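Whiteboard transcription, Tuesday session. T.W. wrote the structure tokens on the left side:
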């Protein structure tokens, strides 16, 4: 291919196809045309290049100025075959992505997005409001419910405690539980290991319609209440009902067991320990597990939650006593910082987490290759952590090959999983709009 170019234009002669094409752009307007050899020869001379290119046959045209939504028109379906060198296909893809992004974002009162890598600063975008009544705009300080991304952070905490020689993830979890014991269905002590509980293969199942979130003003539910099934928050005792390793059962109840274990081995309240052991160490000022103390401290920046009908959650956000399973609140920017440090740990460059600990977290579980410790694996190259609650939906992906991370957080329950609500598409398609 032979090329000519000038300010705002570029032309190509494809010798193999004997086709001449040219593109021009100005203030968001773009046009791709098929031209002839005479026009091609004149380009770069004294004649007006815009006028010369416009004299050709229009293949593709787009507009992306400040006065209208991005749009394009295809005049010849073979435009990319005729001019594969041009920007037209990229523009069409970007425009389609922007339109889809706007459609997805429009479902939620507020959305916060972030993308970055372990070695570079990230990019962020914010949409909508954190509270519809006050019309408070979402910004970088707006704190969203991270829901089950909590489990990834809990796993990091457990591996940190292993580094401190306070536990061993391959020992029985009952060996570290003092106030309560994990029993089997027949009432005997379970042999389930800490690792099995972290990876949801300890045979622990949640009660029916459990872990829905309390309301501010409801009677307090303690962690022991949950473990013993004494409340509708979890309506049956937490038991290891199957032998470990025989079945995968995604379990909030299992992470309640881990929360109790962490408190027993450290003698500290869970949210306070995580603040000291993880969040302060990483400088995460807008990340916390929502105990009553932490809610009071951060409530001005917490988003109001909206259910799948668009109604606000009574009290603005639910209360989650199962902190280790779903009580995390954060921002995409803070989650990117956490993920970047995890990448550093995998590559032996972290002072926060040892490489062996990070590699344990992403080691596939025998018989269940999609499961790690508090995180899920999509093949060898992608780690997935996601959350879905009555007050929001979120997702984070870590791309091991490139060291990149992308995060999307919202403050409404869309009523459908991430792949259907579009949240996963936002996470996957960050390159178009961040």
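and on the right, the sequence the group agreed on:
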């Amino acid at each position: 291919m032979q090329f000519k170019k000038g300010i705002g234009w570029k032309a190509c002669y494809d010798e193999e196809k004997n086709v001449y094409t040219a593109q021009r752009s100005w203030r968001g307007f773009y046009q791709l045309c098929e031209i002839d050899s005479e026009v091609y020869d004149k380009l770069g001379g004294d004649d007006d290049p815009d006028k010369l290119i416009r004299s050709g046959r229009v293949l593709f045209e787009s507009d992306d100025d400040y006065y209208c939504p991005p749009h394009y028109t295809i005049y010849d379906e073979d435009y990319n075959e005729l001019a594969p060198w041009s920007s037209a296909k990229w523009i069409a893809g970007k425009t389609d992505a922007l339109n889809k992004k706007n459609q997805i974002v429009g479902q939620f009162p507020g959305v916060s997005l972030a993308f970055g890598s372990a070695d570079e600063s990230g990019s962020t975008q914010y949409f909508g409001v954190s509270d519809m009544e006050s019309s408070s705009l979402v910004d970088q300080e707006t704190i969203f419910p991270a829901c089950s991304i909590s489990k990834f952070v809990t796993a990091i905490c457990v591996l940190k405690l292993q580094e401190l020689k306070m536990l061993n993830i391959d020992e029985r979890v009952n060996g570290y539980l003092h106030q309560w014991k994990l029993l089997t269905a027949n009432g005997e002590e379970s042999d389930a290991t800490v690792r099995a509980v972290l990876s949801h293969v300890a045979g622990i199942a949640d009660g029916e319609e459990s872990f829905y979130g309390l309301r501010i003003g409801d009677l307090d539910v303690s962690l022991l209440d949950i473990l013993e099934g004494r409340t509708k928050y979890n309506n049956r005792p937490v038991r290891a009902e199957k032998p470990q390793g025989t079945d995968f059962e995604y379990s909030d109840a299992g992470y309640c067991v881990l929360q109790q274990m962490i408190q027993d081995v450290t003698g500290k309240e869970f949210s306070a320990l995580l603040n000291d052991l993880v969040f302060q160490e990483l400088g995460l000022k807008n990340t916390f597990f929502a105990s009553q103390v932490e809610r009071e401290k951060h409530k001005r920046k917490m988003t109001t939650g909206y259910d799948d009908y668009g109604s606000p959650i009574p009290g603005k956000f639910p209360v989650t006593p199962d902190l280790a399973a779903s009580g995390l609140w954060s921002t995409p920017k803070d989650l990117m910082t956490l993920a970047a440090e995890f990448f550093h740990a995998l590559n032996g460059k972290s002072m926060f987490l040892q490489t062996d600990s990070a590699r344990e977290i992403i080691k596939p579980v025998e018989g269940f290759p999609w499961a790690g410790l508090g995180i899920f694996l999509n093949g060898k190259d992608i780690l997935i952590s996601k959350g879905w609650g009555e007050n929001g939906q979120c997702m984070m992906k870590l791309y091991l090959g490139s060291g990149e991370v992308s995060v999307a957080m919202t403050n409404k329950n869309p009523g459908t999983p991430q792949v259907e609500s579009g949240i996963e598409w936002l996470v996957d398609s960050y390159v178009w709009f961040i």
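Someone added at the bottom: DSSP finds 16 helices and 18 strands in the chain.
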